[in-house]
Amino acid sequence: MSALLQKRAAPYVFVLPFFLVFAAFGAYPLAYALRLSFTKWTGAGEARWIGLDNYTYLLTSPEFWASLGNSSIMWLLVVPIQLVAGLGAAVLLSNAKLRLRGLFRVAFIAPFVTPLVAMAQVWIVVFDRDYGLVNHALNLIGLPDVGWLTSTAWSKPTLALLFLWKTTGFAIIILLAGLQSVPTHVYEAADLDGASRWRQFWSMTVPLMRRSLSFLLVIQTLAVFQMFAEPFVVTQGGPYGSTTTAGLYLYDHITASDLGTGAANSFLLVILVFALSLISVRFLRARDE
Amino acid sequence: MNDKRPGIPTYALLAVLAVLFLYPIWWAISSSIKPAAEIISDPLSFNPLDATLDGYRAMFADVPIGTGFANTALVLVVKGAMTLFFCPLAGYAFAKYRFAGKNVLFGIVLLTLMLPTLVLIIPLLLEMSALGWVNTYKALILPGSIDAFSIFWMRQVIAAIPDELLDAGRVDGASEFGLFRRIVVPVIRPGLAGLAVLTMMNIYNDFVWPVVAVNDEKHQTLQVVLSTLAQNITGNRIGADFATVWSELLAASSIAMIPLLLVFIFLQRHFINGILAGSVKG
Asked: Residue A153 maps to which CATH number?
C-alpha cells in the first residue's frame, strides 16, 4: 500500500472501533427504544403499537411526577450546599502559605474513590434507627432516636448526605484548579485599590470561577437526576416512595416488565436532562456578557 | 489570593472537614475488625487489642466475594485494555488527521458524551436478551468499552504534540500506526496514566449496568455481590444474629474499598490529573 493511501485510510481505521461499538450498543438500542416507547410490551409475545399512550400515561401519572419531585428536592439538598461549601474549602486550600495542603486534599477526595455500593451499605448501618452509630451518639448527649432511613422527613436528607459526602471532594478539586488559574496580579491590583477580601471574593473570584462553577453545576445536576445506586441499595425507594428518584423509578419499569413505558420514561428523562443542562449553560453564558 | 499566613481558624475548619470526610471510612474499616456484638452495643469504641477477623471469616464463608473480585478483575483487564488502546487511537485520528467527515464524526462523539447512561439501560438489556448475552462476560465488557469521554480527553492530550515530530517520523518511513506506537504513546504517557487510573476506578465501581445485565451468581461483579448482601440484610431484620450480619457487611464493604484506596494513595497525582481532565470539557 502506498504511503499516501495509507495516510488517507488511517484515520478511518483508527476511529472505526468506537463507531462499531457505538452502532451496536448505542445507536441501535437508542433507535430500538424510541420505537419501543410507542408500544405496549411486557417482554414476551407481540409488542402492540399504542402511539403516544405511554407518554400521556406518564405525564398524567402522579408517580412519575413524584419521582421528578423527589429528584428535585434531592437537587436542592445537594447542589447549592456543594457549590458553596466546595468553593469555601477550595479558597481555604488555595492559600499558598497553607501547610499540609496535600494531606487535606487526600482526605477530601478519599470518599470519591470509595465504591458507592460499599459506602451505601455503611450508611444503612450507621443510620440504622435502633442500633446505628448516629442515634447512639445522639442518645449519649441526651437526644432521642431519629428515623433517618425510616421516616419520610429524614430519608431524603440522609441520602443527600451520602451523595454530598461522596462527591464534594470532586467539586473541591475542580474548584481548586479553577482558583489556581485566576492570575494573582488581579488580586494585587484590587489590594492596591483597597478592596476588602469579602468584596474581592464576590466581585472577582466568583465571576472568574464561572467556568468551573458552570461545569460543576451541569455535571452534578445530571448526576442527581440520574441518582440510582444510593436509593436502590439504602432504601429501595422507601419509606412510602419518599426516595424513589427519577433514576430508580425508571428501573421499576424493568422489574414490572413494563418495557414500553420504561422506554418512554427514558426519553422524557433525556429531554429533561438536556433541557436542564442547556438552561444552566445559558444562565451562566448570559451573565458572562 | 495574595496570601496571608492562614490562622488557627482556617486549620481548625479544614481539620474538622477532613475528619468528617475520613471518619465514615475509618469507622467502617475499624468496625469490621471489632467483635460483632460491640458494633451494636458500643459503636463509638475501638480497641485494637480486641481486633478480630471473625467478621471476615464468616463473610468469606457466606458471601461469594471471591467470585465478585475475580469477575471484576476480568472485566477490568479486558474492558480497561480496550479503553486504553482504542480511545487514544481514535483521539489521535481526531487530533492529527484531516479527513472527509471528520467534523460530523467528532460531533457524534460529543453528542454521546451527553447521553445519560440510564436511557440505554432498558434497550441494551433487551438487546442482550435477544443476543442471548444476559449473564455473560460479553454483556459486562462490550457496551461502553470504547467511550466518548476518553476519546475526547485523549484528543486534547494528543493535539499538544507538535506536528513536526510526526512529520519527522514519516520521513523516517514509519507507518501511520507506527507513528502512534513509537511517537504518540511515549509522549502522552502521563495522560495515559491518568486515563488508566480513572478508567480503573470507573469500571471497578460501576454498578447500574452490571446489576441489570447479570443476575446469576457466577457472573456477578464485586459491586453486585455487595448490593445483594445489603438487600438480604434490610429484608430480614428480625434475627438473633443481627450483629454478626452487620459484621459481615462491614467486612465485605471494607475489603471492597481497600484496593482502590491503596491505588489512590500511591497514584494520587494521576488520580487528580484524571479528575481534572474531566473538567476540561466544561
From this structure: 1.10.3720.10
ipTM of the prediction greater than 0.90, yes or no: no
Q: How many domains does chain A divide into? A: 1
Q: What is the pTM assigned to this prediction?
A: 0.89
Whether A195 is covered by a domain: the verdict is: yes
Q: Kindly report the number of other CB atoms within 10 A of residue A168's CB atom.
A: 25
pLDDT digits (tens, 9 = 90+) for B92-107: 999 999 999 999 999 9
The answer to whether the CB atoms of A15 and B105 lie below 8 A apart is yes
Q: What residue ranges do the domains of chain B occupy?
A: 53-279
Per-residue pLDDT tens over the stretch A51-68 = 889 999 999 999 999 999
3-state helix, strand, coil in chain A (%, to 5): 75, 0, 25
Residue A21 lies in a domain: no
pLDDT band at residue B281 under the 50/70/90 scheme: very low
| Residue of chain A with shortest Cα separation from B278 | A174
Whether residue A94 is contained in a domain is answered as: yes
In B, minimum Cα distance to A125 occurs at: B246
| Angle at CA of residue B135, ends B132 and B136, nearest 5° | 75
The total of other beta-carbon atoms located within 10 Å of residue B241's CB is 11
| Cross-chain residue pair B21–A110, CB shorter than 8 Å | yes
Specify if A16 maps to a domain: no
Which residues in chain B have their CB less than 8 angstroms from residue A98's CB? 3, 6, 10
Nearest to B90 by CA among A21, A72, A217: A21
Q: What is the mean pLDDT of residues B199-211?
A: 91
Q: Which residues of A touch B5 (CB under 8 A)?
A: 97
Instruction: Point out the least confidently predicted range of A222-236, B30-44, B263-277.
Output: B263-277
> B109–A18: do the CB atoms touch at under 8 Å?
yes
Residue with cell 427504544: A33
Query: B53-279, what's its fold?
Result: MetI-like fold (1.10.3720)
SS3 A40: strand
| Cβ of residue A42 closer than 8 Å to a chain B Cβ | no
Report the residue from A97, A116, A273 with minimal CB separation from B5: A97
Domain residues for the domain of A185 are 53-288
Contact A98 B6 (CB under 8 A): yes
